[in-house]
Amino acid sequence: MENQMQTPPKTSFFQSNTAKLIMIGILSLVLLIPLALVQNLISERAVRKRDMVQEVNTLWGSDIKFYGPMLSIPYYSTETTQIVNANSQTVTQTKRVIKNAYFFPEKLYNKSTIKKSKPLKRGLYENVVFTSLMDFEGNFGIPNFEKLNISAENIIWEKASIIVNTSNLKSIKSDLNISLNNEKFVFESRGSSQSVFGILESNAFDYNSLASDYKINFKFQMKFNGSESVQFIPVGKTTTVILDSDWNSPNLMGSFAANEENKTITKDGFHAEWKILDINRSFAQQYAESIPNLNEYLFGVKLIETVDQYQQNERASKYGFLVIGLTFLIFFLIQSISKVNIHIFQYTMIGLALIMFYTLLISITEHSSFSIAYLVAASSVILMLLLYSVSVLKNKKFPIFISAALTLLYSFIFVIIQLEDFALLVGSIGLFLILGAVMYFSRKIDWNTN
C-alpha cells in the first residue's frame, strides 16, 4: 500500500488565538460602558457630599477673609448738580455733604491660632471645621489728608472711628472690643461691604483728644468658627501675619508667599509667617469716599484634605480598564498555555465581577474608611474570581496564580492612590514592569493555532 502524507486540518480563523484576543479586546471596550456608569455614580456622590458640606459650612461658618482695621474720619465736601427749575431753566445747585476718608495702619501685626473642631456630621458625611483665635495689634500714623486734597477746615475730627471688614459676621464668637491708646471701644455691625465682607465699626471718638502725637495704637481679639480657609489683606504699611495650627495638610495660598525660613509643616500641624511691606503691593495707604476692593491681594492658608474618599474612589476607578485588561490577559495566557477553552460569556462574568469591585468600594467607603473598604472589596472580588476560575480551569494551580496576580495588582493600585508627589513615577515604573512580564510570558504563544 502506498504511503500517503496526511495534511492536518486547517484551524478556522475564529478559533485562532488572534480571533479570541480580538473578541476579548472588544469585550474590554464594551465593559467601559458599565465602568463609566460607576464613575458617574462616584461623581454624583461627590457632588452630594459637596452640597451637604456647603450646607454645614453655612451654619457653622465658611471661609474667613479679613480686611482691616482702617481709620475712618469724615469730612465735608461739596457736590454740584444741575436741575431744571420751574421756568424750565437749567441751574447749578451746590450742597454740602459728609463723606469719609479711610487710612490704613502703619504697622499691623496678627497672630492667629487655628484648631480643628470635632467633625460635624450630616447624614453619611462629615465636614471638618475649625475655630480661629486672632490677635491684632499695631498703630495708625498721622492721617495724610493732603494726598486726598482735603483741606483741614473740612475734617470732622470728633467723629472718627475704626472699621474692620470681615466675612462670616455670624460666625464671630467673641466680644467685639478694641483698645485705642488704652481706651476701650465697642464694634457694631454696619451691614455689608462689596460682595463677601461685612462691616464692623467702632463707636465714634474725637481723634485729636485720643491720639498721642497724632498716633493711635490699637489692639483687639476676635474668635471665629470657620471652614476651608483663613485669608488676610495686607493693609498695614508693614504687615506681619503668623499662623499656627494643628492641621497637617495646609495649602499656603494667595498673592504673597510665606517666609520659607520660618515655615514648618509636620504631622502635628504647621507654622507659617508672612511679612509684607507697602512696596510689595500696589495700593495706597489712604482713600477718600469709599474703601477699595482689594480681594486680589488676599493671602493665607486653605485647610484641605489631601485626598478625600471620593477622590480616592475616582482615582481607583481610573485604573478600571487596566485591571480588566490585565485580568483578561492573564486568563488568555493561561488558556493558551493550558489549552483550556474559556468561553466569551465566562470572560464577561469575570469583567462584571471586576466592575463590581468599584461599586462595593464606594458603598463601603461611605460607611467606613477608604482603606478598610478597599481591603473588603478587593478581597471579595479576588475570592469570587478564585472560586470561579477553579470551576472554569478545572484545577487549582492556575486559579491560585490568578489570585496572587490580582492581589499584587490591587495592592499596586492602592499604593499609587495613597501617593501624591510620586504617584506618576511609581505608576510608570509599575506599568513598565507589568508590560515586561506580559512580553515574557507571551513570547512563545503560537498566534495561528487554537
Describe this structure in words.
A hairpin with a 2-residue loop joins β4 and β5. Helices cover 36% and strands 30% of the residues. α1 packs antiparallel against α5, α2 packs antiparallel against α4 and α7 packs antiparallel against α8. The mean pLDDT is 81. It has 450 residues and is an alpha+beta fold. The radius of gyration is 35 Å and the shape is elongated. The strands form two sheets. The chain has a 16-stranded mixed beta sheet that branches.
How is the biggest beta sheet arranged?
A: 16 strands, mixed
Question: First CA to last CA: what distance?
Answer: 33 Å
Nearest-integer average pLDDT: 81
Q: What is the count of β-strands?
A: 18
Assess the beta-strand content as a share of residues.
Answer: 25-35%
Number of helices: 9
Radius of gyration using CA atoms only: 35 Å
Structural class: alpha+beta
Q: Give the overall form.
A: elongated
Low-confidence parts, pLDDT < 50 over ≥5 residues? none
Give the topology string: H per helix, E per strand: HHEEEEEEEEEEHEEEEEEEEHHHHHH
Helix percentage: 25-40%
